[in-house]
Write a structure and sequence with these properties.
Length: 388
Amino acid sequence: MGTEKLCRGLVLAGGGARGSYQVGVWRALDELGWTAGVVTGTSVGCLNGAMYVLGQYETARDMWLSIRSKDVMELPAPGSGLEGLGEAVRQFVAEGGVDVSPLEDIVRRVLDEKALRASPIRFGLVTVEQRGLRPHQLTLEEIPQGRAADYLLASAACFPAIQARDIDGVKYMDGGYADNMPAGLAARMGATELVCVDLEGLGITRPNRTGLPTTLIRSHWELGDILRFDPAVARRNIELGYYDTLRAFGRLRGDAYAIALPGSAEAAALFRARLDPLQEAVRGRWPAAHLSSAAALALAGLEDTPLAPLEAAAEEAGVDPARMYTVEELGQAFLAQCDHQRLAAFDPLFDGSGSGALAARAALLPHLYLQALVRRALTGPYVPEVIT
């Protein structure tokens, strides 16, 4: 009985301007030595996928770090106030969507169809006929010669915001209307394991029923507006995609933040040695306040339990997620960013002089109280004797 040949599949979801995130994923995969044999994509995912197949990482990166909305679509002339906005909407409806001629220029400039077809990496995309919403999951071999750019643009035609794409008299729209994460297409093309990169874009994301080993990469953070192309947002998203991929492959820890592995177990244990007794002491005297911090953690949805309170507090304080931290550095970043004066108001709960009114305030402000708890764990005594 023969062994099945390994074929890695990279599945890139649609999501408009959020597509910069996938460039960060690409960078991390290259560093990890992970190379796809099959790439499938929808909308912006298929545009990024085509550049991946062509090995154009620097081109993709530089494009995302320079492109602005005006470089992708022809926007109506700005008007004043609500009247101008109403006129823009009326123009979109009358013209069937925004004209993306600038994007077409970029795609035709970047795409070398001959090289795309000669690549050993197989490529597929999804688009949808406007009439009847008939889906088309197409491999590159199934796309007529000379029409690859047209079908790429069709897959990215997010109607009604963007005009449907006319190909030989048939109008096509964004593939997200059928399958925004074409894992099934990758399996049909021979993939035996998958990396799926979700942008949480508009459209239908179907359950992955391939049964293949799958690594899902998705950001904890909002990646920005789908139609707002901005270099600063793109730079942040690239970093988030890079760190999320390293985390997905076990090279980092954390959920919201990229936390270096070396020394993290010891540092996390030290943090919990300070935090947990505080929690227990407050729970014994002010159970409503304790439930408040537990609720804030539950709402944060973080899975790295030892560091979840620190990550949740850092997120609430606005600590930058687009860089790597040690546990100690994340704590220092939180302390540098948090509102010490406001958080210090909860200190009486930790030193035994608190009141029922203050405990009630903590219960009403769970996220703020959680920050106060973490701040005290990082800066104060372990547990004052007065409340032990």
